[in-house]
Amino acid sequence: MSTKTPKVYDQVIEQIKNKIKNGELKKGDRLPSEREMSESLGVSRASVREALRALEVIGLVESRQGAGNYIRTNFDNSLFEPLSVMFMLQESSIEEMHDLRETLELQCARLSAKNIENNELELLTAILDRMYMAENEEESLELDIKFHYLIAKTSRNVLLINVLEVISQLMDEFIKKSRMQILHRGNTRENLLEIHENLVRALKCRDEAKAYRAMEEHFGLIRKAYGYEK
Amino acid sequence: MSTKTPKVYDQVIEQIKNKIKNGELKKGDRLPSEREMSESLGVSRASVREALRALEVIGLVESRQGAGNYIRTNFDNSLFEPLSVMFMLQESSIEEMHDLRETLELQCARLSAKNIENNELELLTAILDRMYMAENEEESLELDIKFHYLIAKTSRNVLLINVLEVISQLMDEFIKKSRMQILHRGNTRENLLEIHENLVRALKCRDEAKAYRAMEEHFGLIRKAYGYEK
After folding, report:
1. Where is the HTH gntR-type domain positioned along the sequence (chains A, B) (predicted)?
2. What is the pLDDT of residues A184-211, one digit of tens each?
């Protein structure tokens, strides 16, 4: 086992992190100039630049030509890259990913029942209607993703949403679309539509337990289709 | 909203990431030399060095004096740093963190009931015994953390464990110990011990539903103690 030896640039990163922690730096804020940081920490400007570049690489900081360095306002998942690479290095199985995703989506269903707003319910119903009319598997799949994304969003828990996004992206890379499409054929397709219908109904009644159970049914079907039942 | 403009070093990072994805590079492996990477991608060695430095900063790569660059074998949470910084930037509420933590721990309890081994059950029982005898709040707290960590570990889902670790660390930074200690006093302490006892019993019976419910009770108590009941 190797442990990381602290480097000079770590001090710079630590300082920026602390300023974020104590609220001194927020999204979109300008960082102190390289000169200021180098003076306040007593480190070389090269070390400051190294740290800034690394923060830029992971998508936390952006440098604007001639205007200095800023905390990014949107993260485009760039910060998740390291996490998803680590997931890959740990050779996590698709079952492990699936378990985590299920855990998070069940909770999303519950929270959504509590927090979804009327216009969002309308949007969800519209997506469901289009799912019934979808003419090919591509379209079904796309609508399905939208449906689940909207439920996640209406959970109103940004942390949950973010972690779910990482794991979903990761799974999409592993699961070939063809496997997902199993779900959008024949019998399974009908069952799936029914389950989505139940889910919408539960959300409309603001019934957390019912929403949770509908999502549970949904994942039961997925497990069955993928052949790794609990 | 700003989007990240691709830079030359991004190509280098992309290449390394792809090699991890397709299994060519694993934990502990040596990376191609700077010269090789620079030649194979047709980019300057400075760009290669920039990318490597960034990967070193986030703790994915370590450079060994005179021996080249390696994929790290243990991550010491270093890869989680960016994630936890992002959580902070999003100004997630303690309730949001709590919700996510609860979601994950409930699933851990369920999976642990399925996967825990006998020697781990013995260890868990020993921790519980020591919790009963703990003489101060510091000790209670420490044992409590060990107890939950062991249950998480025995879920055998590394993804779940990792995400739970990030969120736990983050919460520890936010929740002052004093608040956690509410739980280790008087009545609440007794209730908590009883719940932990129930949890161990459920795990011993390999009863997933019972383990889940015991953990649910546990979080109900925490919510009550913290004053943010559902």
Report:
1. 6-74
2. 667 778 888 999 999 999 999 999 999 9
Partner A, chain B 117-156, Cβ-Cβ below 8 Å:
none
The torsion angles phi and psi of A228, rounded to 5 degrees, stand at -130, 70
Q: B 78-117 residues with CB below 8 A of A? A: 78-83, 85-92, 96-97, 99-100, 103-104, 106-107, 111
CA dist A73 and B119 (Å) reads 48
Q: Does B62 touch chain A (CB under 8 A)?
A: yes
On the CB side of A9, CA atoms within 13 Å amount to 19
pLDDT of A118 higher than 90? yes
State the amino acid at position B213 in one-letter form: R
Phi, psi at B134, each rounded to 5°: -55, 135
User: For chain B, what percentages of helix, strand and coil (3-state, to nearest 5) are there?
Assistant: 70, 5, 25
- Asked if B152 contacts B109 with a C-beta cutoff of 8 angstroms, the reply is no
Phi, psi of A70 (to 5 degrees): -130, 150
Contact B82 A82 (CB under 8 A): yes
Domains located in chain B, CATH noted: 8-71 (1.10.10.10), 79-226 (1.20.120.530)
CA–CA separation, A98 vs B152, rounded Å? 17
Token pair in block for residue B73: 């074998």
Contact yes or no for A195/A214 (Cβ under 8 A)? yes
Q: Return the SS3 of B80.
A: helix
Predicted pLDDT of residue A199: 96
Half-sphere exposure (Cβ direction) of A203: Cα atoms closer than 13 Å:
33
Three-state DSSP at B221 gives helix
- Which pLDDT score is estimated for A34? 92
Structure tokens at A8: 């000079």
ipTM tops 0.85: no
For an interface test with B, which of A11, A12, A15, A58 has the most B Cβ atoms less than 10 Å from its Cβ? A58
Determine which of A12-26, A173-187, B190-204 has the lowest per-residue pLDDT on average.
A173-187
pLDDT digit string, tens, across residues B89-126: 776 777 888 889 999 999 999 999 999 999 999 999 99
Cα A111 to Cα B177: distance, rounded to the nearest angstrom = 28
| B46 CB-side CA count, 13 A | 3
